[in-house]
Amino acid sequence: MFSSCKDRTAPFSRPCERQSSLQQRILSYVFKSTLFLLVSMSLPALFPTMEARAWQPRLMEEARLEDKKPTVVGSNREYILGKGENLVHLAYRSGVGYTNMVRANPEIDPWMPSAGQRITLPTAAIIPLPLEPGITINLAELRLYLIWEQDGQKYVRIYPIGIGREGRDTPPGTYQVANRAENPSWTPPPSIRAEMPELPPVVPPGGDNPLGSHWIGLSDYNLGIHGTNKPHGVGRRISSGCIRLYPRDIEDLYHRVTVGLPVRIINDPIKLGIKDGHLYLEVHSLEGLEKEAALRRVWDQAETVGVDQAIDRGAVQETLRRANGLPARVSVAREIADTKAPR
Q1: Which GO terms describe its cellular component (predicted)?
Q2: Three-state DSSP class for 169?
Q3: How far apart are CA 270 and CA 286, in angstroms?
Q4: Could you tell me the domains of the chain?
């Protein structure tokens, strides 16, 4: 039997100086939460025969890692919204995490967009270092990277994930796969039981089990990677600390890992990689990171990655400002470069 997550609780509040502003924020939160719940409940009815298989890239030749430098894998796609579509449904249907979908399309209302709007499906990503066999989970971008060797070549597969919510954050660190189980039962930990005292002592395998169909336990006994009976939570900070995948994705990942496989959990919103000789920068939320610290991190990573071209400071600043999670080219040929790294 497995418990799903650690007991991590921490109260938080958001003070508001004006009562009217507080009421508006509460109403907005209640409306969006209710709408999200209704939309989420409708997913099985709207798409009864479809299960998202979200891992990228789809072609083996695109998944091959040619050298030890991080690179851009996959490519973003464009999509035109149809009548009645929204980003919640589309994230599930296209196998993209919800937060990354919203981050890549900041001008689109995720709940009630207009038909005919053109959006970006964020299916390109820079592989974080080190490029060694194992699992890397980057909390900042809500993605899991699996690297493995096959016939003397290294390959990567990328999965969108859901992670711990505020107060029950997924802990960064270095772990190993400790155990695996198909059709696991779930023993609710005390923290969850305090919130939902109606839960039975053990939840058996099946549709009511939040672990889904497969469990990959880590060397921290209470932490694991698993499926879910609520796929709309993938791509969101919504779990009690564990890492959840779409049902079809956890099945795929489960059969590719073995006990003892290294697992590294990081929280890095800034990544750099090389593609076709050019330097690319991918930036996710920079909350809590000062501008100068972010710039310095870019140049520090650039030195680690190594690039023959010059870095375009203006392109770097614009990519940091947007923080939309899409890899952007930030280098130019040295003979036309008009910017230099900060000293």
Answers
A1: extracellular region
A2: coil
A3: 8
A4: 129-266 (2.40.440.10), 270-336 (no CATH)
- Choosing from 5, 214, 226, 232, the catalytic residue is 226
pLDDT tens, N- to C-terminus, the chain (343 residues) = 454 454 443 333 444 444 455 556 555 545 555 554 444 444 444 444 345 556 888 888 889 998 788 999 999 999 999 999 999 889 988 889 999 999 999 999 999 999 999 999 999 999 998 899 999 999 999 999 999 999 999 999 999 999 999 999 999 999 999 999 999 999 988 888 888 899 999 999 999 999 999 999 999 878 999 999 999 899 999 998 999 999 999 999 999 999 999 999 999 999 999 999 999 999 998 988 898 999 999 999 999 888 888 999 999 999 999 999 999 999 987 655 554 555 4
- Residue 128 CB partners (closer than 8 Å, separation 6+): 70, 136, 138, 145, 266, 268, 271
Active-site residue flag, 226: yes
Record the tokens describing residue 243, joined without a space: 């890492």
Cα separations in angstroms, 230 against 105, 212, 299, 308: 24, 9, 40, 46
Q: Which of 5, 214, 242, 284 is catalytic?
A: 242
- Dihedral, 127, 129, 130, 133 alpha carbons, nearest 10: -20
Tell me the C-alpha distance between 103 and 232, whole Å.
Answer: 16
**Strand residues in the chain grouped as ranges (E):** 64-65, 72-73, 77-80, 118-121, 125-126, 134-138, 143-150, 153-160, 163-164, 173-182, 214-218, 224-226, 237-239, 243-244, 262-266, 270-275, 278-283, 310-311, 328-329, 331-332
Q: 19-46 and 87-94 are packed helices; what angle lies between their axes, rounded to 10 degrees?
A: 40
- Asked if 197 and 270 touch (Cβ cutoff 8 Å), the reply is no
Find all residues with CB under 8 Å of 239, minimum gap 6, and list them.
4, 5, 162, 163, 164, 165, 168, 170, 233
Catalytic annotation on 242?
yes
Single-letter amino acid code for the residue at 316: V
| Rounded-to-integer distance, Cα 247 and Cα 214, Å | 8
**Which residues make Cβ contacts (< 8 Å) with residue 114, sequence separation at least 6?**
81
